[in-house]
Design a protein that fits this description.
Elements lengths: L7 H4 L15 E3 L13 E3 H14 L25 H18 L3 E11 L4 E10 L5 E9 L3
Antiparallel strand pairs: 1-2, 3-4, 4-5
Length: 147
């Protein structure tokens, strides 16, 4: 009985398999859209690119991105809810879900949230690891209502 051999590696299955690795370079466009002297816009790479993506997820409300209504953590909508013990847990859950669903380059390590009902502000601190590296990044922001 004849066997089909699709490639040289398929014909010799007893040999060691070929291992191919490639370095992943995370790149994004700088959202400030500043121009370089060459006319191009700046790019963010590696940790800066992932940090910018996390920042975008945190600051985006639901239904704000066309054709992706679930994109974002929708934290600003929590500013107008009653501030109680459950608010912090809800915000942490929204952030975790958004990062897991839309940012595969980051793994959340820790999220802390402080809700200030007096100032109508939410302080968020996210500690995340960039996957396939040992880099751990901390991002802090305050989401507040305009007065």
């Amino acid at each position: 009985m004849a066997t089909k051999i699709f490639s040289q590696e398929d014909g010799n299955l007893d040999a060691a398999s070929i291992v191919v690795t490639r370095d992943l370079i995370y790149k994004d466009i700088d959202l400030n859209f500043n121009k370089r002297t060459t006319g191009d816009i700046f790019k963010k790479t590696e940790a800066a690119a992932v940090r910018q993506a996390i920042k975008t997820l945190i600051s985006t409300n639901r239904f704000e991105k066309p054709f992706k209504p679930d994109f974002g953590a929708d934290i600003r909508s929590m500013l107008f809810e009653l501030a109680d013990e459950k608010s912090g847990g809800e915000i942490i859950s929204r952030i975790k879900n958004a990062v897991q669903q839309y940012e595969p380059r980051a793994g959340v390590r820790k999220i802390t949230v402080e809700v200030s009902e007096i100032y109508n502000a939410i302080d968020v601190k996210i500690v995340f690891q960039i996957l396939n590296t040992d880099q751990i990044i901390t991002y802090e922001t305050t989401v507040s209502r305009l007065v």
